[in-house]
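Protein modeling request. Please complete all fields; requests missing the sequence field cannot be processed.
Requester role: graduate student
Desired output: 3D structure, C-alpha coordinate encoding
Chains: 1
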Amino acid sequence: MEKQVIIFDKPEGKKHSICYKTSQNDPAIQSVYVMRSHLGNIPPKKIKITIEEEF
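Delivered output (55 residues):
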Protein backbone atom coordinates (compact mmCIF):
# COMPACT_ATOMS: atom_id res chain seq x y z
CA MET A 1 0.00 0.00 0.00
CA GLU A 2 1.30 3.41 -0.94
CA LYS A 3 1.08 6.32 1.48
CA GLN A 4 -1.89 8.55 0.65
CA VAL A 5 -2.55 12.10 1.82
CA ILE A 6 -6.12 13.32 1.45
CA ILE A 7 -7.24 16.92 1.96
CA PHE A 8 -10.85 17.33 3.07
CA ASP A 9 -11.91 20.83 2.07
CA LYS A 10 -15.71 20.76 1.95
CA PRO A 11 -17.10 20.86 5.51
CA GLU A 12 -20.82 20.27 6.01
CA GLY A 13 -22.34 20.79 9.45
CA LYS A 14 -24.45 18.06 11.01
CA LYS A 15 -26.17 17.98 14.41
CA HIS A 16 -23.23 16.67 16.48
CA SER A 17 -20.48 16.44 13.87
CA ILE A 18 -18.91 17.96 10.79
CA CYS A 19 -18.81 15.89 7.61
CA TYR A 20 -15.69 16.70 5.62
CA LYS A 21 -15.64 15.77 1.93
CA THR A 22 -12.74 15.91 -0.51
CA SER A 23 -12.55 17.39 -3.99
CA GLN A 24 -9.63 15.11 -4.97
CA ASN A 25 -10.07 12.59 -7.78
CA ASP A 26 -10.28 8.89 -6.83
CA PRO A 27 -9.43 9.18 -3.10
CA ALA A 28 -9.21 6.16 -0.80
CA ILE A 29 -11.63 7.94 1.55
CA GLN A 30 -14.32 10.28 0.19
CA SER A 31 -15.73 11.66 3.43
CA VAL A 32 -15.07 11.59 7.15
CA TYR A 33 -17.22 12.62 10.12
CA VAL A 34 -15.56 14.38 13.07
CA MET A 35 -17.43 15.03 16.30
CA ARG A 36 -17.89 18.75 17.04
CA SER A 37 -16.65 18.26 20.62
CA HIS A 38 -13.17 17.45 19.25
CA LEU A 39 -12.92 20.42 16.88
CA GLY A 40 -12.99 23.36 19.28
CA ASN A 41 -15.19 26.45 19.07
CA ILE A 42 -14.41 27.22 15.42
CA PRO A 43 -14.14 24.09 13.23
CA PRO A 44 -11.31 24.11 10.66
CA LYS A 45 -12.15 24.75 7.00
CA LYS A 46 -9.76 21.98 5.89
CA ILE A 47 -8.34 18.83 7.44
CA LYS A 48 -5.64 16.48 6.19
CA ILE A 49 -5.61 12.72 6.73
CA THR A 50 -2.61 10.53 5.95
CA ILE A 51 -3.09 6.81 5.34
CA GLU A 52 -0.15 4.45 5.39
CA GLU A 53 0.54 0.85 6.25
CA GLU A 54 1.78 0.18 9.78
CA PHE A 55 4.42 -2.48 10.22
